[in-house]
């Protein structure tokens, strides 16, 4: 007879969920086997087609380099210029949708079932979603963007504090400073996190509550029904793998160039392809160790280390810079963001097209093209949270951290530029010549202990790349294994290595910018995909209502 | 000699488990001791269950079927893991202590070159567990 010791390993029953009844069995389309000593368990045909398409595009970008650069180089600005209103309107919809979910009764639906317990503590959870999605951008744009918007791009027509001859026009200074920060915060605040939150919520809901496989296509079940298990779903998953891999590989390639520029600036290390290949190899190597140590032992630990290092750098800049000025900048920037957010997010009839199309529309396309990867990773680590808690923690808190970061780094940089324009290294690298990779180090130079903080900056750039690379490899592996999170380890090793290899090939052969432009172009079709996801979330939550026990009605 | 046997099972690959199941059943009859079947599942829906509870109930059915088939006393123990493929071995070692098993019988593959880089599950469990470990070659 069966002497039951049920659920000893499971802390408590997870409660009622509304599992969708479908004939699809998870893993039914998978092919299992071995190649030599390597075991594999992959989705047919998503794995093979994704892999082959990626190789084909790399080949195309190498062999027909000029043609590819011309085609995609023109495609991206054309899309973000022509469809700027689509990007801006959609991003606004995502923000409003998320805010609505916080206050709606559906906010108390718990991801993973009514009694599910959160998989991760707040600190571990928060570190992971931050490190995967945005960390590297903060390093790259924290100094560059506030200074650039203050002095050059003139959002909403706010005039530059610099006259043609380089002298400072005192009357323009205050407004330009505030707008420089607010216009940056706008790009790193509610809108990008709302884009990620929509994708993450859709995937978490349909996977943990509805029992569908953890893969992008599952979010479309309410719309396409059982067709998502056929080619409709294959195409969605393949597109997601494609965007994720090229997104990671091209930013890895560019990231290596940036880190190399930093190393040259700080230590005088040669700036050439050999050094960059070594950097990519190191980053990929650390990412490999991380994926082999797994989600808890590798990815989470590295993300937490990263957050501590970033916090140290932030604290140092805050204390070493003009602290009181930064605090007043923080509140002034936040206040301007609050008052100008409607004007900044207005999709039509704008005159500041340089800012709106060149920056905002570009960013929205970029965040959307990254959303399958970041969203799926956030989903995977968010089981056990209520919808309300989820949105608050994915939307509001990261936005505030970004605001603080931008206010500190941008505030110090703006202060340096305005207080001593003739000797400011930031002014030389951002305004007089446009040298983005150096901007952070130029700002740190103006503070004490520059050699230590610059080294910390380079380490952070590298580790932020590792934390994107390892979580990206896990995501791609899960999608190409048909939603299985327990596929054989060599598959993770394959995707992680493949990503590094694609980055190296494109770096040496050319084609990084062409393929990055192509990835960002996928932002347009994905924008419509995300709008459909909002519909799917509403349908999914509407069916979930009964899963909330009366005691949980109060919310998070 | 032994008081409880633990048998790790992969419900998705039951066809590959025949030898270790037979072996464990023989030992259980010989010593007249119970067998606990242990399964590790991820939090995301998988081939062996849409939710962790569904996985646990499948494991319970499996244990009951083994009891009927081999005429031994059985139990089951389900473990949820964030990353089952990586955490498997540590979770199994922990589970053996938790349920008080002093003999672990598990399936293992014939060693190959990859084992130098990614050690086999049986090898790691044998290295870490306090209980006696019997790796049955498939």
Automatic annotation (TrEMBL), chain A:
<feature type="transmembrane region" description="Helical">
    <location>
        <begin position="446"/>
        <end position="466"/>
    </location>
</feature>
<feature type="transmembrane region" description="Helical">
    <location>
        <begin position="391"/>
        <end position="414"/>
    </location>
</feature>
<keyword id="KW-1133">Transmembrane helix</keyword>
<feature type="transmembrane region" description="Helical">
    <location>
        <begin position="518"/>
        <end position="538"/>
    </location>
</feature>
<dbReference type="InterPro" id="IPR000060">
    <property type="entry name" value="BCCT_transptr"/>
</dbReference>
<dbReference type="GO" id="GO:0005886">
    <property type="term" value="C:plasma membrane"/>
</dbReference>
<dbReference type="GO" id="GO:0022857">
    <property type="term" value="F:transmembrane transporter activity"/>
</dbReference>
<dbReference type="Pfam" id="PF02028">
    <property type="entry name" value="BCCT"/>
</dbReference>
<keyword id="KW-0472">Membrane</keyword>
<keyword id="KW-0812">Transmembrane</keyword>
<keyword id="KW-1003">Cell membrane</keyword>
<comment type="similarity">
    <text>Belongs to the BCCT transporter (TC 2.A.15) family.</text>
</comment>
<feature type="transmembrane region" description="Helical">
    <location>
        <begin position="493"/>
        <end position="512"/>
    </location>
</feature>
<feature type="transmembrane region" description="Helical">
    <location>
        <begin position="307"/>
        <end position="327"/>
    </location>
</feature>
<feature type="transmembrane region" description="Helical">
    <location>
        <begin position="228"/>
        <end position="255"/>
    </location>
</feature>
<feature type="transmembrane region" description="Helical">
    <location>
        <begin position="124"/>
        <end position="144"/>
    </location>
</feature>
<feature type="transmembrane region" description="Helical">
    <location>
        <begin position="85"/>
        <end position="103"/>
    </location>
</feature>
<feature type="transmembrane region" description="Helical">
    <location>
        <begin position="361"/>
        <end position="379"/>
    </location>
</feature>
<feature type="transmembrane region" description="Helical">
    <location>
        <begin position="46"/>
        <end position="65"/>
    </location>
</feature>
<feature type="transmembrane region" description="Helical">
    <location>
        <begin position="275"/>
        <end position="295"/>
    </location>
</feature>
<keyword id="KW-0813">Transport</keyword>
<feature type="transmembrane region" description="Helical">
    <location>
        <begin position="190"/>
        <end position="208"/>
    </location>
</feature>
UniProtKB/TrEMBL annotation, chain B:
<dbReference type="InterPro" id="IPR014729">
    <property type="entry name" value="Rossmann-like_a/b/a_fold"/>
</dbReference>
<protein>
    <submittedName>
        <fullName>Nucleotide-binding universal stress protein, UspA family</fullName>
    </submittedName>
</protein>
<feature type="domain" description="UspA">
    <location>
        <begin position="1"/>
        <end position="137"/>
    </location>
</feature>
<dbReference type="InterPro" id="IPR006016">
    <property type="entry name" value="UspA"/>
</dbReference>
<dbReference type="Pfam" id="PF00582">
    <property type="entry name" value="Usp"/>
</dbReference>
């Amino acid at each position: 007879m069966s002497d039951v010791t049920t659920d000893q390993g499971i802390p408590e029953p997870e409660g009622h969920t509304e599992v969708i009844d479908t004939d699809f069995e998870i893993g039914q389309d998978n092919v299992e086997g071995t190649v030599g000593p390597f075991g594999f368990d992959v989705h047919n045909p998503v794995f093979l087609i994704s892999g082959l398409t990626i190789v084909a595009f790399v080949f195309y970008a190498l062999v027909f380099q000029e043609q590819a650069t011309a085609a995609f180089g023109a495609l991206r600005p054309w899309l973000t210029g022509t469809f700027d209103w689509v990007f801006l309107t959609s991003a606004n919809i995502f923000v409003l949708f998320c805010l609505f979910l916080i206050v709606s009764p559906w906010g108390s639906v718990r991801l993973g079932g009514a009694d599910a317990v959160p998989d991760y503590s707040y600190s571990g959870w928060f570190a992971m979603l931050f490190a995967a999605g945005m960390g590297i951008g903060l390093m790259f744009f924290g100094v560059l963007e506030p200074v650039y918007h203050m002095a050059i791009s003139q959002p909403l027509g706010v005039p530059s504090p610099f006259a043609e001859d380089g002298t400072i026009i005192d009357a323009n200074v205050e407004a330009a400073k505030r707008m420089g920060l607010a216009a940056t915060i706008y790009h790193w605040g509610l809108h990008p996190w709302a884009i990620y939150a929509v994708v993450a919520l859709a995937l978490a809901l349909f996977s943990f509550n509805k029992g569908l496989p953890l893969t992008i296509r599952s979010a479309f079940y309410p719309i396409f029904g059982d067709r998502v298990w056929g080619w409709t779903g294959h195409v969605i998953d393949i597109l997601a793998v494609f965007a994720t891999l090229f997104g990671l590989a091209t930013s890895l390639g560019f990231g290596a160039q940036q880190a190399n520029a930093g190393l040259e600036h700080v230590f005088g290390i040669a700036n050439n392809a050999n050094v960059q290949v070594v950097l990519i190899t190191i980053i990929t190597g650390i990412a490999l160790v991380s994926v082999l140590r797994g989600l808890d032992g590798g990815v989470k630990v590295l993300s937490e280390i990263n957050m501590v290092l970033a916090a140290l750098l932030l604290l140092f800049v805050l204390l070493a810079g003009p602290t009181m000025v930064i605090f007043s900048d923080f509140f002034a920037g936040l206040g301007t963001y609050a008052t100008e957010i409607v004007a900044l997010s207005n999709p039509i009839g704008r005159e500041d097209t340089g800012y709106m199309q060149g920056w905002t529309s570009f960013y929205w396309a970029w965040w959307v093209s990254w959303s399958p990867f970041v969203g799926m990773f956030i989903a995977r680590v968010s089981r056990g949270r209520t919808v309300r808690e989820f949105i608050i923690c994915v939307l509001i808190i990261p936005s505030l951290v970004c605001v603080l970061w931008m206010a500190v780094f941008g505030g110090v940089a703006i202060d340096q530029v305005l207080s001593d324009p003739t000797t400011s290294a930031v002014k030389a690298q951002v305004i007089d010549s446009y040298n983005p990779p150096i901007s952070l180090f130029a700002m740190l130079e103006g503070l004490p202990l520059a050699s230590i903080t610059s080294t910390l900056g380079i380490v952070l750039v590298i580790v932020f790349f590792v934390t994107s690379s390892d979580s990206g490899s896990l995501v791609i592996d899960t999608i190409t294994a048909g939603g299985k999170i327990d596929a054989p380890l060599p598959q993770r090793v394959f995707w992680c290595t493949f990503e590094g290899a694609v980055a190296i090939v494109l770096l040496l052969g050319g084609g990084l910018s062409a393929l990055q432009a192509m990835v960002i172009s996928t932002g347009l079709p994905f924008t419509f995909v995300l709008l459909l996801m909002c519909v799917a979330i509403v349908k999914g939550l509407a069916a979930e209502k009964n899963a909330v026990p009366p005691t949980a009605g109060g919310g998070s | 000699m032994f008081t409880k046997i633990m048998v790790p099972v992969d419900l998705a690959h039951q066809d590959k488990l025949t030898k270790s199941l037979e072996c464990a059943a023989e030992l259980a009859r010989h010593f007249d001791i119970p067998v606990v079947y242990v399964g590790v599942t991820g939090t995301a829906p998988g081939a062996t269950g849409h939710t962790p509870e569904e996985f646990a109930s499948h494991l319970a059915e499996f244990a009951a079927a083994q009891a009927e088939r081999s005429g031994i006393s059985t139990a089951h123990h389900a473990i949820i893991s964030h990353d089952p493929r990586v955490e498997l071995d540590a979770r199994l070692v922990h589970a053996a202590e938790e349920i008080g098993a002093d003999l672990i019988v598990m399936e293992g593959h014939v060693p190959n070159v990859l084992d130098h880089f990614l050690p086999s599950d049986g090898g790691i469990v044998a290295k870490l567990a306090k209980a006696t470990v019997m790796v049955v070659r498939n």
